[in-house]
Amino acid sequence: MGQTWTDEDVFFLQKRVGNCSLSAIAKQLNRSETAVSLKLKKMGLRNTKNATGLLTSSELAEALHVDRKTVHHWIRFHGLEAISRITCYERKFCLVDINSFWQWAEQNPEKLDFSIVEKHALPPEPEWLDEARKTNTDKIIKTYKRWTTKEIELLLKWRKEGVNFKEIAEKLSRSRISVERRYTRCKNN
């Protein structure tokens, strides 16, 4: 028969689930991964992302009709609060609290087109959202556009001919920064 789970073991397990992989928790408790997995299941903590009540970045992206990478960009560079959690088997998730998201969205309206967000897709919806849906109908949101092989060839050709980044950006309907970054990546490879 296996080791008995002490109150301290259970407390440790509750605190670490979602913050460490199953193998790391098992090692710290000096137990097998199977034993820890079974205990998590008995405690109802098997799926850490569902147990939190938070949205994954993918779920948020789907509800907002944006790419998952866009949500990660907001988290990384534009102050959208998120926490990182690890499932039992080491897969990482960024989780977003819906109330924090709506506060962030109210302060960053230029990042979203509220007119395409379905009603009650992300409850509880704030009072200002209905008005934002009406005023956002013709808004152009910048989204990432993949570089085609043809565009990269033109970029390299024009740079070789001495065309500056601003002119290339206009010709390709891209931002100057995007053109500079792509050129740098091409030169480094």
Cα end-to-end separation: 58 Å
- What sort of overall outline do the alpha carbons produce when their principal axes are compared? flat
**Overall SS class:** mainly alpha
Largest sheet: 3 strands, antiparallel
> Would you identify the regions where 5 or more consecutive residues have pLDDT less than 50?
none
Please list the strands of the largest sheet in the order they lie side by side. 1-3-2
Q: Average pLDDT, to the nearest integer?
A: 82
Helices, by number, come to 11
Tally of strands: 3
Using the CA coordinates, give the radius of gyration. 23 Å
- What are the secondary-structure elements, in order, as H or E? HHHHEHHEEHHHHH
Helix content: 40-55%
* % residues in beta strands: 5-15%
Describe the structure.
- The structure is a single chain.
- It is flat and about 75 Å long.
- The model has no long low-confidence stretch (mean pLDDT 82).
- With 189 residues, the chain is mainly α.
- It has a three-stranded antiparallel beta sheet.
- The chain contains eleven helices and three strands; from the N terminus they run ααααβααββααααα.
- The protein has helices spanning 7-16, 22-29, 33-43, 48-51, 57-64, 68-77, 98-107, 129-135, 149-160, 165-172, 176-188; strands at 55-56, 83-86, 92-96.
- The termini are far apart.
